[in-house]
């Protein structure tokens, strides 16, 4: 069959368009499979002038400062460091495409100096957001709402005529009305936020400082102090872990008296790094990942 030059040109164009359409469909199919499998394209880290982000990119390692001992967030189990913070740190490293180096200070109060000196890239250690701290470091958006609560030794409190009301408002009211505030002994962890805040709530009380949360809690159990003030989650976990000793003797108030928020901390002057962390926080919250970690380590 004879085809005129014009018809041959039209046929050639049709064949070219068919091939292009097939190629387009094939690419869409491939991308569709990736989308179904939950895979995203690989993106390069654009540091945007962030020195910390640039260091992470160049070294292919993120140095994460964690809490020395704060169950369920960071603790030792079977000779291995585990916890909510550890899983989050590894997830962040995976999403950045780098390895994770956990840095454990001798004490919690060492973390901010380490961050400022460039020894770590981020603090993932259940650090409470405070205005005072924000003068020296930057905080991400909050990933966990908690609060300060009270753990009380009922036996010692009863013996010393300290109120046993499980409401902070009623507790402090009766304490003052009965002139018992000066006799109240509070166990606190040195270097933690409660050590700075407690004087605002219990200005006349006696304060004992301990190097770790566990030692402060043990002081209450041993009747060396009437109460311990700390994060409500730690107090509840500690009482539960030691329930054979604390049963009917040591209890935690049902509600915190001061609301706090945990956030990640990074050095000043790293806005691009902070932007990325805020998106990371959003994703671990909206995906249910963070709550799943709490359930995992609170069993």
TrEMBL record:
Q: State the source organism's domain of life.
A: Bacteria
The answer, when asked if Disulfide bond is one of the entry's keywords, is no
Identify the InterPro entries for this entry.
Iontro_rcpt_C (IPR001320), Solute-binding_3/MltF_N (IPR001638)
Every copy of the Solute-binding protein family 3/N-terminal domain together lies at: 61-299
Q: Name one GO cellular component term.
A: membrane
CDD domains, per the entry: PBP2_peptides_like
Molecular-function annotations in GO = ligand-gated monoatomic ion channel activity
Residue ranges annotated for the Ionotropic glutamate receptor C-terminal domain, each copy included: 61-298
Q: Which UniProt keywords apply?
A: Signal
Q: Which Pfam families match?
A: SBP_bac_3
Q: What is this protein called?
A: Glutamine transport system substrate-binding protein
């Amino acid at each position: 069959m004879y085809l005129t030059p014009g018809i041959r040109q039209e046929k050639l164009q049709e064949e070219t368009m068919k091939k292009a359409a097939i190629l387009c469909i094939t690419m869409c199919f491939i991308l569709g499979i990736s989308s179904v499998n939950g895979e995203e394209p690989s993106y390069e880290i654009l540091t945007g002038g962030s020195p910390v982000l640039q260091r992470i990119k160049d070294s292919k390692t993120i140095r994460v400062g964690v809490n020395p001992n704060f169950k369920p967030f960071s603790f030792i189990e079977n000779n291995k460091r585990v916890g909510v913070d550890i899983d989050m740190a590894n997830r962040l490293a995976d999403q950045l495409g780098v390895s994770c180096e956990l840095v454990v200070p001798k004490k919690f109060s060492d973390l901010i100096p380490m961050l400022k000196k460039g020894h770590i890239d981020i603090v993932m250690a259940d650090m409470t957001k405070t205005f005072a701290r924000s003068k020296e470091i930057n905080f991400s958006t909050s990933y966990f709402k908690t609060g300060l609560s009270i753990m009380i030794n009922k036996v010692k409190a009863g013996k010393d005529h300290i109120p046993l009301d499980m409401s902070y408002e009623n507790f402090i009211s009766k304490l003052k009305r009965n002139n018992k505030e000066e006799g109240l002994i509070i166990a606190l962890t040195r270097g933690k936020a409660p050590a700075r805040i407690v004087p605002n709530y219990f200005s006349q009380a006696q304060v004992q400082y301990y190097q770790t949360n566990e030692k402060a809690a043990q002081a209450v159990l041993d009747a060396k102090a009437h109460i311990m003030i700390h994060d409500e989650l730690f107090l509840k976990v500690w009482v539960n872990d030691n329930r054979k000793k604390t049963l009917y003797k040591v209890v935690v108030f049902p509600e915190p008296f001061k609301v706090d928020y945990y956030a990640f901390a990074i050095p000043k002057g790293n806005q691009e790094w902070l932007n990325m962390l805020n998106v990371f926080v959003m994703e671990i919250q909206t995906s249910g990942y963070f709550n799943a970690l709490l359930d995992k380590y609170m069993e």
